[in-house]
Amino acid sequence: MALIEQLENDNWQALLRMFWGATLDILKNDPYQSVGSSVDDLRAWIRQGGVGRIKEHLNRQMDLRQFSVDKKKAVLGFLEILFHENRRQLLELVNQKVIPPDKHDILSAYGLSELEIADLLERIRAGEHPFEDWMYAHGHSAETIAEIYKIIDEWLMTQGILPPSLTKTH
Question: Helices marked H in the chain — which ranges?
Answer without folding.
Answer: 3-6, 12-29, 37-64, 69-85, 87-95, 103-109, 114-125, 130-137, 142-158
